[in-house]
Each structure stands twice: as C-alpha cells, then as structure tokens.
Design a protein that fits this description.
heterodimer, A: about 325 residues, alpha+beta, SH3 type barrels, 4 domains, 5-stranded antiparallel β-sheet, 4-stranded antiparallel β-sheet, 11 helices, elongated, B: about 325 residues, Arc Repressor Mutant, subunit A, 9 helices, WYL domain-containing protein (chain A), WYL_dom (chain A), WCX_dom (chain A)
Chain lengths: ~325, ~325
C-alpha cells in the first residue's frame, strides 16, 4: 500500500535503492549481501502483486546519468476515469454484474462493480428489469476471449458429433459470439486458410495459446455475428400443404396452420412450409391422426418416411439379445 | 502467514476502500461492510492498516487520516488515493459483455438505461471496452413485449398454452412471477392455478393470453426454479428410452439431457428420459438416423402407428 502511495506521489522515477530508503518495510543494509537479496526478493514480489492487480507500473530513468531503472505510477493511467451514472444506469450495471453463473466471470464482474462503487456510484441491489437472462458460458470462453484481445493464435481439439475423433485446429481468433444462446469463436483457420466459426461446447480439453501477442490483425470492421448467422437466415415458406386431421387431435399441426376448415369427420388444415422434409417429419409423427392431401412432394415425403420408420422398427428376431 | 494471493486481494480492497469512503463521508461502518461484502471485523482491521499508510515522510500530515464519530467514519486525508484503480481486462470484459447481453435480451425493460450505462462503462474502460465478444439473442420482440406488459400490469393472466409433451392446448389461469431467457428461449415463470405448482411457460408456446381483473398473487410456496443447469432436468420418475443413433443423429446428445451414451464404432446407443412416450413417438419420426431400441412398447407403438398411417395412403 505504501509502495503504491509513494510511487503515485512521485513524478520522478525512483530507483529500488531510493524506494528502500523511503518506504517502511523495505529497511535493510545494502552492504549485507544476504539482507540485500532478501529485500530484492520482497521488492520483486510486491511489483508482481501490483501488476497482477493491474497497477500500471512505469519503468524509466530519472536522468540520462542514471544507470539503475526507476519506477513510478502515472496517476492518469492508474485512476478509473470519472464516471457519472444516473440511478437507472447504475441499476442496469448492478443487474449486469449479477448475470454470470460462471465463477470467474462473476468474480470479475463484482470486483469491477466494487470499483464503480468506490468511484461513488450507488447501486440498488433490488433492481430488476422485467426479464432476466440466464447466461452460462463454456470453459473455453475465458482463454479464447483473452487470446482474441491479445491477438494470439490458439490451438484446440474440436469434436463434431458426426465425426468420431476430435481434430486439432489452429485458429487466429477474432472474437467470440453469442448467437441464439450458444457460444462460437470466429477467426482465421490457419490449416484451411479460411474464415471459420467453432462452437465452444465442442472444444475438447484446453485451449492453448501458440503465438506471440499481436500476431495478426482481424479484418477491419468484421461483423462477427454475420459469420455465425450466415447459415441460418429466414426461411421462405412458399409451399402450400393441405392436411386432414382427426377431430381433437394433432394440436401441434393445428398450431402451424394458416387456416383450419372444420369438417364432418376430419378437419382440414392449410399449412405454409419451406422445407417439405421438415413438415413431413412432423406429419409422420402423428401417425394415423394426420393425412396429407397434397401437394405430391409432401405426400411422397411422408410416405417415404413412414416406410423407413416401419423398416427400422420391424422386429428382428436374433439381433438384440437381452 | 498470508499467501501472495490473499495479500494481493487485500491490497486491491484497501486501494478501493479509500475512495469508497471518500465518496461517502460519515457512512456507518456496519453499512459500509455490508455494502462491500466484508465482515465488520474485517473492515475495522482494514481501517487500522490504512492508518499507518501514507506518503513518504509518514508524519501526521502524510498518513491517511480518518475521523470516527460514534460508528461513522470519514476520511480526512486520502494521501493521493482519491480514485479507484481502473478496470482490469477481466472486469471490463465481464461488465461490458453482461451489459451487451442485457441490451440484447428480448422484451427487457429499460433498454435505454442499459445502452446509456454500456456507453459510459465502455468509455471508462478505455481500450479494454473493445471486448472481442458480440451478442445476438433470438427475438420475437413483439410478442415478448406484449407478454411483458401484461406481466408488468401485476394482474393474473389467462393463458392458451401448447404443451408438446402431451400435444395439447390448454387454458389456464396463472399468477406471473418473473420472465427470463435461457439459451434460445424466453419464458414466463408463474404459479399455475390448474396444476397448483410453479411452471415455466415458453413464450413461443403461449398461443393467446388475456389480462384478468384480479391481481397476480403467487402463494408463498411458489418458488422460482433454479435454471442455471438448464430448463429441462428430467427426474428419475420419467420413462427411459434407448435409441440407436447414426452419425447424422448424434446432435441429439448436444441438445437434450441424456443419461448415457455408449459409443459403439459409428453407432451410438443413447439412453435418455422423456416426459411422455407418445411425445417420443412424434419426436423420433422422420429422423432417419435414429432407431428406437427400447422400451419394447414404444417400438411397437411406432411400428403400429406408422403402419396405420401408411394404410391411409394405400390405393383404394
């Protein structure tokens, strides 16, 4: 603490020897090698502690005649800039800080919040915003965001469910994206020499940083979301299906219908669709409760799926012994 | 003997404590301790340590000084520690990303406050605010806003709700408790008077709702669910089904909680719990990479239903 105060108060760079003469706790006999070594160890440890806390320690010399490096802390670099939050803004920050379920992020958020309060911000712990997002992150989130910030390349093992063995991937990570509640990393895949995105939940084991900081530059103004979202744009529903369903049945299909025309024995549903296979699987799931009248592409898809379903569930005598 | 970790923690706390007290002259010690999340004893120990800290010279005018008035404390000399340390990269990331999440949450109130707060935090965080994290949550903004307005009214609601497990649309009266988003979906958590329990209603499955004249009054036993481990956490009372899953169907294990996966070369044997066997029948149709292995009655139901459905298409 005294070291911080001392280095904040000085404009000149102070050498280790000068600091030892001023700051209590560093008293020692510089002529005694053992005593001097103990001081140096303690001083190194304290400097490491300051860096760990994020205290910006500057190193330089007071004049061109000095051989020894000196230290100081620039007030401008040290202090949190003035921040004036209105009560509603402070409430939002307080809620944001409670969002994380992940222990590391939760601790970082609350120590960040503690600094804001030290700057005079009053946070109402009871505030709510109507909808609470529940946010979980995958273990790879921390290492990947750090690597993206430092612009360091990473390596990790990636498992796609359709493939048996995880494969080693090398990536220059541009950033991490939360898309529809799932986390992805977007970047330049060094092996494929192309832009790729990876789902964080499929990363197996640790993420290793492989290069030095500042090793690459993400493309200017890259829209990370668009890389992830590209594959799942809006679906055009141009197909028009007519499906008959039994009275009081197939509630899930009725919800899809643009129009329900009640009938004597069955009701008629008019459904708009994009992907016939998708709608066919929904209809097939209702078994004899639903029947496609048209168009033929949908009718054929349903028949095909039902036939496969029968074939796969035909009793096979010796296959499963129990 | 303190470990380096706790010593850094304590230094961080002390550096924060001076500006915190400086901004709140005359704050009761107990209130400050509660606010800072430390015990009163701990806070008093920290204050005693501050007393021997100060500027070189360490005379009466150099040391940090404070005045006590009963249980209240006021900093009278701050020795240059008048501002908190700036946000470190992890703190900036955690706050900025959380605010972006909030701003993106469909149906959230006070979006304007969130965006203003985000701008101010970003400006205070400087270079660090450029967090390499982008957020896009799904949205049926319009419907969520309508449901939220109804919840904000504090009235009980009448819901028309689709339950896929039983494939039925039901009418019920609920006492709203809160709204939340988990992963891809937004939910209304409410006390359901019909089932006499707390239920999560997925917003996209609320087909219609009306506001009643009576107020929302969840009973004392209405406790919110802990959804940090996911919304659907099947209990042991639910039936188990076993599936043989080809490569193209392995995604099931990423989307649904499964009990067991046996990886037998290319094919996986997946065991999962389902709320209802009829739901399982509907769910598994049209998934060419999935075959039901058990229980036997489910296999039989699937086959019988598919046969009966095919008969409808047989040429007359």
């Amino acid at each position: 603490m005294n070291l911080v105060i001392c280095l904040l108060s000085t404009r000149r760079f102070l050498t280790a020897a000068q600091i030892a003469l001023t700051v209590p706790g560093y008293e020692h006999d510089p002529e005694d090698p053992r005593d001097h070594e103990a001081f140096q160890r303690k001083f190194e440890r304290d400097k490491a502690e300051l860096r760990e806390l994020g205290v910006p320690l500057e190193i330089g010399t007071a004049s061109i005649f000095d051989q020894e490096p000196g230290y100081r802390i620039a007030q401008r670099e040290y202090a949190l800039p003035d921040i004036l939050l209105e009560p509603d803004e402070a409430a939002a920050v307080g809620i944001a800080a409670r969002l994380w379920q992940h222990a590391g992020l939760a601790a970082a958020a609350s120590s960040g919040l503690a600094k804001l309060r030290a700057a005079g911000v009053e946070v109402d712990p009871q505030a709510t915003l109507g909808v609470e997002p529940v946010v979980t992150v995958d273990p790879a989130f921390g290492p990947l965001t750090s690597a993206a910030r430092e612009r360091r390349a990473v390596g990790f093992k990636y498992r796609v469910p359709e493939v048996d063995e995880p494969s080693a991937r090398r990536l220059e990570p541009w950033g991490v994206v939360c898309w529809r509640g799932r986390w992805y990393v977007v970047g330049h895949d060094k092996d494929r020499d192309a832009t790729r995105c990876f789902r964080l939940s499929r990363i197996v084991g640790d993420v290793r940083t492989t290069g030095r900081p500042g090793a690459f530059t993400p493309p200017e103004g890259a829209d990370l979301i668009s890389h992830v979202a590209r594959s799942s744009g809006p679906i055009a529903r141009n197909g028009r299906a007519t499906v008959t369903v039994r009275h009081g049945r197939a509630a899930g299909l009725r919800r899809l219908a643009r129009e329900v025309i009640p009938g004597e024995e069955t009701d008629k549903l008019l459904i708009s669709y994009g992907d016939p296979e998708w709608l066919a699987s929904r209809i097939a799931g209702y078994g004899p409760d639903a029947r496609v009248e048209g168009p033929p592409e949908l009718r054929d898809a349903v028949i095909q799926q039902l036939k496969e379903l029968v074939a796969r569930h035909e009793p096979v005598t010796p296959a499963v012994a129990s | 003997m303190t470990t380096p970790r706790t010593s850094a923690d304590r230094l961080g706390r002390l550096l924060n404590l001076v500006p915190y007290l400086l901004a709140r002259p005359g704050i009761p010690v107990a209130e400050a301790a509660a606010d800072l999340g430390v015990t009163e004893k701990q806070l008093r120990e920290d204050l005693e340590l501050l007393w021997v800290c100060g500027l070189p010279g360490y005379g009466p005018g150099d040391l940090i000084d404070m005045a006590f008035d009963g249980d209240r404390v006021t900093i009278s000399h701050d020795a240059g520690i008048d501002k908190p340390l700036r946000l470190n990269p992890d703190e900036a990331l955690a706050l900025v990303v959380a605010l972006r999440m909030l701003a993106e949450t469909p149906g959230i109130g006070a979006r304007d406050s969130i965006e203003r707060a985000l701008a101010k935090i970003e400006s205070a965080a400087g270079d660090l605010a450029d967090a390499p994290v982008a957020v896009k949550l799904p949205a049926n903004q319009e419907k969520l806003n309508r449901v939220r307005a109804a919840v904000d009214s504090g009235k009980a609601l009448h819901l028309t709700y689709y339950t896929p497990a039983r494939d039925e649309i039901t009418e019920r009266v609920v006492d709203p408790m809160r709204m939340l988003t988990v992963g891809t979906f937004a939910y209304l958590e409410a006390w359901c008077r019909r089932s006499e329990g707390t239920r999560l209603f997925r917003i996209d499955r609320i087909d219609a709702f009306t506001q009643l004249d009576e107020p929302s009054r969840p009973p004392v036993e209405a406790v919110p669910h802990d959804v940090s481990g996911g919304v659907f956490r099947p209990g042991p009372e639910l039936p188990l089904v076993t599936l043989r899953v080809g490569r193209g169907g392995r995604w099931i294990t990423e989307y649904y909680p499964v009990e067991q996966v046996v990886k037998d070369s290319g094919e996986w044997l997946v065991t999962m719990r389902v709320t209802d066997l009829v739901w399982a029948r509907r769910f598994l149709a049209g998934r060419p990479d999935v075959t039901v292995v058990g229980p036997p009655e489910l296999v039989e139901q699937i086959r019988a239903a598919a046969h009966a459905a095919l008969d409808q298409y047989a040429a007359p």
